[in-house]
Write a structure and sequence with these properties.
CATH topology: TIM Barrel
Number of strands: 12
Largest sheet: 7 strands, parallel
CATH class: Alpha Beta
CATH architecture: Alpha-Beta Barrel
Strand content: 5-15%
Length: 313
């Protein structure tokens, strides 16, 4: 049984403080997020996490991608679709993931354990489009979703080929809301999945009791759901395990909606039930969702608790 994170961790950008950084800043080369990535990666490794994220330090899950996509613009913190969506102007997360891999090698002095690696995380096209306002070109969200999937496919392929992650995760929290055309959402994920060399995961927030049948049809190898903050999801999984056979489950066992510590006994009991349902070989332990809003110390302690449970099994 391995552990991971859904993605985001507490992050803050840093002003240049030493001569080298001030020199780089003078020429526009200083990266204020570099140290935040380092802190996020080392936090995960210190806590015992196996499959690492880069901490998603550069912004919220929508703008972090939409600002690189022609046809989309950000104005006063909101994303707008203003013309036809096209190929991204540059790779979005590849350099941060490569830096995270370098930090893992540094942490282990080059002797990286076999199970330690990064995963790529990309916000899904349905969630981005449903979080954006269409002001031009598209008459409906469905056409925009398909074009955005084709655009994000460039990022997915770059992560696959250049980073060689353990897997790539698509974040689609909107799929549990009932607002999304699930047939179109599946078509979009099919586009992202095509010719990948690594497994594809899909993270869906919230209660899935109204969406699990449709979700089970998606062409992904890993489903990631919340179980700590949405206990009904455990019953859904137990009663419909036949729909998720041959799939691995990202098993949210830490409540990311609260900033106080989880009960070890409650989290361990939840994991034990999950193992009884799907077997520990099919579980990836993680928090319910991102931990960006948690204080750094609490985020670390939550991850440490999760990995203490993992080590018990």
């Amino acid at each position: 049984m391995l552990s991971t994170v859904v993605g985001s961790l507490p992050a803050e950008n840093h002003k240049p403080s030493n001569f080298k950084d001030k020199f780089l800043n003078a020429f526009g080369k200083y990266d204020p997020f570099r140290d935040a990535i380092r802190q996020a990666v080392f936090c995960q490794l210190d806590a015992g996490v196996d499959i690492i994220s880069d901490g998603q330090t550069r912004g919220d899950m929508i703008s972090a991608f939409s600002k690189y996509v022609p046809g989309m613009k950000i104005e006063k913190g909101n994303t707008y679709i203003v013309s036809k969506i096209k190929k991204p102007v540059s790779e979005i997360s590849v350099n941060d993931l490569l830096f995270a891999k370098k930090l893992i090698r540094e942490y282990y002095s080059g002797n990286v354990p076999e199970n330690k690696n990064v995963k790529g995380i990309v916000t899904g096209p349905s969630t981005i489009v449903h979080s954006s306002r269409i002001t031009s070109f598209y008459k409906n969200k469905d056409d925009a979703i398909i074009d955005l999937a084709r655009s994000l496919k460039y990022e997915i392929d770059a992560i696959d080929k250049k980073v060689k992650p353990t897997y790539i995760q698509i974040d689609e929290p909107f799929l549990s809301t009932g607002m999304v055309n699930m047939k179109v959402a599946r078509e979009a994920v099919d586009i992202l999945h095509e010719d990948l060399n690594v497994p594809l995961a899909m993270h869906v927030c919230g209660t899935i009791d109204g969406a699990y049948r449709e979700l089970s049809k998606f062409n992904v190898e890993i489903f990631d759901f919340e179980f700590a903050g949405n206990n009904v999801n455990l019953d859904v999984l137990r009663d419909n395990i036949n729909l998720f056979k041959n799939k691995k489950i990202g098993f949210g066992c830490i409540d990311s909606s609260k900033n106080d510590m989880d009960s070890y006994e409650s989290a361990e009991n939840l994991v034990s039930q999950g193992i009884d349902i799907i077997g520990k070989e099919n579980i990836l332990l993680d928090p319910d969702c991102g931990l960006r809003r948690a204080p750094k110390k609490i985020a670390y302690e939550k991850l440490k608790l999760m990995n203490d449970i993992k080590n018990k099994y």
